[in-house]
């Protein structure tokens, strides 16, 4: 029964969001009244009175729930919401979950993810827990194809909400798809990586996607330049030049 209520809540929330995106202004849903999570339900399945306020990532994740806004939900195993620090000063945005992420429900855990983790840990001297990592689309596109326009359009409100909750100092767009989704169609990764742009009034710098670097290791040099630029912007010490 609790599961049914959660799904109903998700449908209502998605509908309200869809209306908002179409420019309507529906009556506000007081998410602090209805946003329960699995954890809140407790072992004995009783909803607890401890509820999430609407400006937390957990409440947002609960409200996205079992999203079926686009066709990507058909084949996904897990919706990959994102993970990391809600107070992160740096957010990494990739394009969409791969196979490993679809299986685990966590972003950037496959080979490209391992490289991103090395960049964060060895390059920046941070940990994955210090930053926030997510994707433009939250569900795995079959056969690792690029996410399609309608899929990106449906999912962007979720990314925007994540960003508005975290309010990072810098967003690092990983690759062409993330760059275009946030910065517009004229964005070109080869021309525009390493430059500062703005998304939701937050500075954005795009670099090559780690999967691209695995294929073309010579791109490492440019990625390291971009990482250093981000570190400078965040006031972090840059080692090795
Ligand atoms: N590639 C992405 O863009 N995102 C992931 O989460 C994993 C691989």
TrEMBL record:
EC identifiers of the protein: 3.2.2.27
The Uracil-DNA glycosylase-like domain, residue ranges: 81-228
Reactions listed under catalytic activity: Hydrolyzes single-stranded DNA or mismatched double-stranded DNA and polynucleotides, releasing free uracil
Gene3D superfamilies: Uracil-DNA glycosylase-like domain
Gene Ontology process terms (BP): DNA repair
Cross-referenced InterPro entries: UDG_Type-4/5, Ura-DNA_glyco_family4, Uracil-DNA_glycosylase-like, Uracil-DNA_glycosylase-like_sf
GO molecular function: 4 iron, 4 sulfur cluster binding; metal ion binding; uracil DNA N-glycosylase activity
Enzyme class (EC, first level): hydrolase
A Pfam short name: UDG
Keyword Iron-sulfur: yes
Name of the protein this chain belongs to: Type-4 uracil-DNA glycosylase
Domain of life: Bacteria
Keyword annotations from UniProtKB, A to Z: 4Fe-4S, DNA damage, DNA repair, Hydrolase, Iron, Iron-sulfur, Metal-binding
CDD domains with a match to the protein in the record: UDG-F4_TTUDGA_SPO1dp_like
Homology family: Belongs to the uracil-DNA glycosylase (UDG) superfamily. Type 4 (UDGa) family.
This protein's record includes keyword ATP-binding: no
């Amino acid at each position: 029964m609790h599961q049914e209520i959660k799904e109903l809540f998700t449908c209502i929330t998605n509908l309200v969001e869809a209306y908002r995106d179409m420019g309507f202004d529906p009556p506000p849903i007081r998410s602090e009244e209805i946003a329960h999570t699995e954890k809140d339900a407790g072992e004995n399945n009783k909803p607890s009175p401890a509820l999430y306020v609407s400006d937390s990532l957990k409440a947002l994740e609960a409200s996205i729930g079992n999203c079926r806004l686009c066709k990507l939900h058909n084949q996904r195993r897990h919706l990959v919401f994102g993970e990391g620090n809600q107070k992160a000063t740096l957010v990494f945005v990739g394009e969409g979950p791969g196979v490993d992420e679809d299986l685990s429900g966590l972003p950037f855990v496959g080979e490209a993810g391992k490289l991103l983790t090395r960049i964060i840990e060895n390059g920046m001297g941070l940990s994955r827990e210090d930053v926030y990592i997510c994707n433009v689309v939250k569900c795995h596109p079959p056969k690792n194809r690029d996410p399609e326009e309608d899929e990106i359009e449906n999912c962007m409100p979720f990314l925007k909400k994540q960003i508005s909750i975290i309010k990072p100092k810098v967003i690092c767009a990983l690759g062409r798809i993330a760059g275009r989704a946030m910065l517009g169609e004229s964005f070109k990764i080869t021309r525009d990586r390493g430059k500062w742009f703005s998304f939701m009034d937050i500075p954005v710098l795009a670099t090559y996607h780690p999967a691209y670097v695995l294929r073309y290791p010579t791109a490492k040099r440019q990625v390291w330049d971009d990482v250093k630029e981000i570190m400078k912007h965040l006031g972090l010490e840059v080692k090795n030049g």
